[in-house]
Amino acid sequence: MDRRKDTLLRGTKLPRDYLKLVEDIFNKNFAKQLLIEKGSKEKFVVHGELYPDEVLLSISLHHPGKNLRMTTCYASVDHPPAPLKTEAGLKPLSSSEAVQASVNLCVDATASFFNNFFTEGRPVEYDLEYRQSWTPVEIDKNTRVYLKINRDNPDLEAVADAILEQDDEKRKKKKLH
Predict the structure, then answer these.
(1) Cβ neighbours, 10 Å, residue 36
(2) Residues 6+ apart with CB under 8 A from 18
(3) 3-class SS at 49?
(4) pTM over 0.85
(5) pLDDT tens per residue across span 156-167
(6) Which of 1, 53, 64, 104 is most buried, taking the most CB atoms under 10 A from its CB?
(7) In this structure, are strands 40-41 and 70-78 parallel, antiparallel, or unpaired?
(8) Which of the 8 DSSP states describes residue 133?
């Protein structure tokens, strides 16, 4: 996935079951806007990774039968998030609460993008309509979600990354022998 932060830290994929819940929410909430072509309906595909300094989520609208390109909205937030304000003061979040809060921010920001996307009639000129670089969206004084919109296909990228990683491992093994 296309990270916002330029660090060498390795990420961990978010659990597939959790990402499937997000897909189901998007597919249900935007069901009326999803097109049906040749018997296949558009659907949302979600990928997510957790890094020590960032949570990254990509939500893509897969267009069946057209091509390999998707409409993809990446959302990134700094991790861990700030402590929650409560009546008693600031409450630190547990690790799982912190990840969930970060993912929820990304989901909300991405849902807002796709709502505008459908409302505006699915613009295809991304160079003119949307920024393809990371754009901050201020949620409140202390919270920003960064969005990036493009035509990436995260499924295809994941397969390509896995092939390249296997190739690198084979080359390393050959050098050892």
Answers:
(1) 9
(2) 48, 103
(3) strand
(4) no
(5) 777 777 787 787
(6) 1
(7) unpaired
(8) S
